[in-house]
Amino acid sequence: MALVAFPGVRAFDVSVITEVWGTDRTDRGAPAFDLRRVAPDTTPVPMRGGLTLLPDRTLSWLDQADLIVVPGLDDHLTPAPAPVLDALRRAHARGTTLAALCGGAFTLAQSGLLDGRRAITHWNLIDHLRTHHPHVSVVPDALFIEDDNIWTAAGTAAGIDLCLHLVRTAHGAEAAATIARSMVTAPFRTGTQAQFIEHPTPHTYRDADSLAAVREHALRHLDQPLTVADLAARAGMSARSFARHFTAETGTTPLRWLLDQRVAAAQKLLERTDLPMPEVARRAGFGSEVTTRQHFASRLATSPRAYRAAFTTVCETGGNNPIAR
Asked: With b meaning 16 or more CB within 10 Å and e meaning fewer, what string describes 229-250?
């Protein structure tokens, strides 16, 4: 895969891309990646803070890339070199997956590739993207989205989320979790989660603490028929108050969060075990194979059986994890 660089790219995003795809974790079971730093020429690329990036390939190498990632920009109006924009257009025409982190959406927009397509950027840059690129359909509230094999992500941490999601899509949940553990970051946040999470005011600190305990309880009992009403009762709140505090703390609704955790649990079971599909459904809390298929189709655009065939690693059961009982 390729990291595309030119003067003005953000050092943080370059570091995220390098940390996810440029670090050898094969000794921990992660896939082997071939990350290349690509630029119009091999001249060192200056970045903020006195840092430089040394490219090891020129733009012609993009013909070999399976994935091309564009870092964000220190200044979102930084013009990308014309050869970079031409190379991105050619790559998309070949069917290569493109991804942009944060203000990297402005680079893709300069190329015209986002015209008529849905895209996201940092919440503080949304109006700027709409103003400078009115033909882009800017989504105001998401962590990352995809349209026609072009991915865009919101700011900073959302770039990590997108990179891990791309690993998960290509190599499975366990590979993404291995990388996330190494980076000491959360392995699973969905693209539909809100960007801006409200910070609790002082009188809600107690509620935030209690909700953390409720989420931990839910994760330990995913195989049981939990409902939002059950979780609200455990938090000692009405369902309406619970939903409001939960969304403010996590950026997503209780039901969506619970379903996302069930999908993640089913993914791990499919990758790690040879359990029959009805048992996978039961342990993940879906209850039936039909329900599991429906949620896999809506969230992962695949079926549980196809997912298992693509991402099975090693069969193992047991342990202390309640979903693997």
From this structure: ebbbebbebebeebbebbbbbb
